[in-house]
Write a structure and sequence with these properties.
The protein has helices at residues 3-18, 32-40, 50-54, 75-84, 118-131, 166-183, 208-218, 264-269, 301-311, 332-349, and strands at 42-46, 89-95, 148-153, 188-190, 223-226, 232-234, 249-250, 276-277, 280-285, 316-321, 358-361, 383-384, 391-409, 417-426, 432-439, 446-465, 470-477. By secondary structure, the protein is α/β, with parallel strands linked by helices. The chain folds into two domains: 32-349, TIM Barrel (Alpha-Beta Barrel), CATH 3.20.20.80; 358-477, Galactose-binding domain-like (Jelly Rolls). The strands form three sheets. An eight-stranded parallel beta barrel has the order 1-2-3-4-5-6-9-10. Helix 4 (75-84) packs across helix 5 (118-131), helix 6 (166-183) packs parallel to helix 7 and helix 9 crosses helix 10. The longest helix is centred in the middle third of the chain and has 18 residues, at 166-183. It is globular and about 75 Å long. The protein starts with a helix and ends in a 5-residue tail after the last strand. The model is unreliable at 5-18 (pLDDT under 50). It binds beta-L-fucopyranose.
């Protein structure tokens, strides 16, 4: 063997020892905008319009423009409430099915006056909030984090005279351009799935390809919601829960947001191995209706926590509707519940019982992907299993009692885990490892509630995976601790 060959072989061997094979993405993965969107976790929806004043949920479109008359409009108060409640953004119903535009549109006569431009008032309030941050931060879940703005523009329009004709598609595209150009940038565009007849008795054939093309030209970073995405999908129900499992992948070939789309039950679960990354958004109202009605009241903190576990805790984003009242303010009883909801999440999730603990996997893939990465709070460090059957072990200095387990897959590399269970080392029971929790998908975040368990050694066993797991966070909590 020549000297040169020997050097080459030695170098190759050294490199192999130092460089661990980087885990490859599996299947579809989120765009940067989708990842940032998912990490917002909880956003606020505001349904506001003529229905707020008439008591309707679906206005006919024949309401007089003067019906919409908030007596003490204060979008800064919405922003304060959203910020204190730990929301990442606010999505306003700029146009609901009644066709009434909350901005003075040049493409409709059914609008607010210039002096009552709600889109402008909210844009200004959000921009002012963000510029007052010291220092400005887009970091998540800090009490003063930046708020983003999103917009709901209903394709269904019960007022517009062109609705039901090709001309309406042109009107709708112009409306999108007008709103996004004058009031953007928006982090999310909401396309409602409801579709009925217009005042002329005609049903619209929406030009979805053109609407989507317009959106990507206007703002490619804007996550577009519809029943089937492409940015994020409707979760298939309005009760506040994802399916179990909940895949962020969905097959949408041949479907449009109006036709041939997956059934609501499929939207709840997504499609295992689906061709596109279309994560679930869980839209639900804090009150029985989407719009404010004098005789309705908000849900309790316990009900909101249940929704949180079943949405964010099952790989969804929670879009919680908080409707302003006839004053144009969020009622005190709603803001009180929202702040208490935030406090309850902080109380539970700010005390991770794995603190000071250690983690290791069955085999080491390489230092960069070592298991202790699951215990830090850096989003972009993760444990990459070397094989699909690898197990992840966690140890704490002292036994801890916990009743919530939190796991996160590193979704920039795709969604991989289909089933797993968690065991605790309890040698006084059945000779060792005892199963305390079982789950299906993990995805961005999975929260499992279990009867209280006590242990200082736990392990996560991956029972079914599409590819070797990549986990960026594990935490244990005790909801009963003071
Ligand atoms: C539904 C609409 O019909 C409701 O009025 C509400 O806007 C909800 C968020 O979406 O499809």
């Amino acid at each position: 063997m020549s000297k040169a060959t020997l050097i080459t072989l030695a170098t190759t061997a050294m490199l192999a020892a130092c460089t661990a094979p980087e885990p490859k993405p599996f299947g579809p993965v989120p765009t940067e905008a989708q990842l940032a969107w998912q990490r917002m976790e909880v956003n606020m929806f505001c349904h506001f319009g003529p229905n707020t004043f008439t008591g309707a949920e679906w206005g006919s479109g024949a309401e007089s423009e003067t019906v919409f008359a908030p007596t003490a409009l204060d979008c800064r108060q919405w922003v304060d409430v959203a910020s204190q409640a730990g929301m990442g953004g606010i999505i306003l119903t700029a146009k609901h099915h009644d066709g009434f535009c909350l901005w003075p549109s040049q493409y409709s006569t059914h609008t607010v006056t210039d002096s009552l431009d709600i889109l402008r008032a909210l844009r200004t309030a959000i921009d002012d909030h963000n510029s007052d941050l010291h220092p400005p931060t887009s970091d998540l879940r800090t009490p003063n984090s930046e708020l983003k703005m999103g917009v709901y523009i209903s394709p269904w329009d019960r007022n517009h005279p062109t609705y039901g004709t090709d001309a309406y598609n042109e009107v709708f595209v112009n409306t999108l351009k007008e709103v996004h150009t004058n009031y953007g940038p928006f982090f999310e565009q909401w396309f409602d799935g409801a579709c009925g007849e217009g005042p002329n008795g005609k049903r619209q054939r929406y030009d979805w390809p053109r609407f989507m093309q317009t959106m990507s030209e206007l703002n490619p970073q804007c996550v577009v919601f519809s029943d089937i995405g492409p940015g994020c999908r409707w979760v298939g129900n309005e009760q506040g829960h994802c399916g179990d499992p909940c895949w962020s992948t969905l097959n949408t070939e041949g479907a449009t947001p109006s036709d041939n789309k997956p059934a609501p039950s499929e939207l709840e679960t997504g499609h295992k191995g689906g061709a596109h990354w279309v994560p679930a958004e869980v839209d639900v109202s804090i009150r029985p209706g989407w719009f404010w009605h004098a005789d309705e009241h908000p849900k309790t903190v316990d009900e909101l926590m249940e929704i949180y576990y079943n949405s964010v805790g099952r790989n969804g984003l929670l879009l919680l509707n908080v409707p302003p009242d006839t004053r144009g303010r969020i009622p005190a009883e709603d803001s009180a519940v929202l702040v208490a909801f935030r406090q309850e999440r902080d109380r539970i999730f700010s005390h991770d019982l794995t603190k000071g603990g250690i983690a290791h996997g069955t085999q080491l893939r390489g230092r960069r992907y070592r298991a202790c990465n699951v215990l830090d709070t850096n989003y972009h460090t993760y444990w990459a299993a070397a094989g699909i059957h690898d197990t992840l072990y966690i140890g704490t200095p002292d036994p801890v009692m916990f009743n919530v387990i939190m796991l996160q897959e590193y979704i920039p590399l795709g969604q991989r885990v289909a089933a797993f269970h968690v065991e605790c080392w309890q040698p006084w029971v059945n000779g060792g490892w005892v199963t305390v929790a079982e789950g299906t998908t993990i995805g961005y975040k999975r929260l499992l509630r279990i009867p209280p368990a006590t242990a200082s050694r736990m392990r996560i066993v991956f029972d079914s995976t599409m590819a070797a797991p990549v986990i960026n966070r594990i935490a244990l909590y005790n909801t009963q601790a003071q």
